[in-house]
Design brief:
Blueprint: H1 2-83, H2 87-104
Amino acid sequence: MLLKKIHHLANKNIHETIFIIKDLMSIRDKILFLEDSNRDKDKKIQDLEKIITNQSHEIRTLSSDILVLSNFAKEIYLLWEESSLEENDLFDIKSNKAKKKNNYH
């Protein structure tokens, strides 16, 4: 009778140990999966940071170009106003240029 009780308790302890080991292995697998997932997300974050950096640089370059073009347009407008030219004068200048070109040939 005592031997049966000992045998029963030993089997019970072995089964509990097996379940604990299975739980530990499952937890280990989940941890490995989460670490891989975390690594992938870190890589994606780094890629997005690179893209943001490149786009920021492109935006700065574009804003600089816009500023230069804006200043250029202001200068042209001021020259146009100082010369007292009208819109039609621009077409006359263009046609005069074309005529001069044709005379050279």
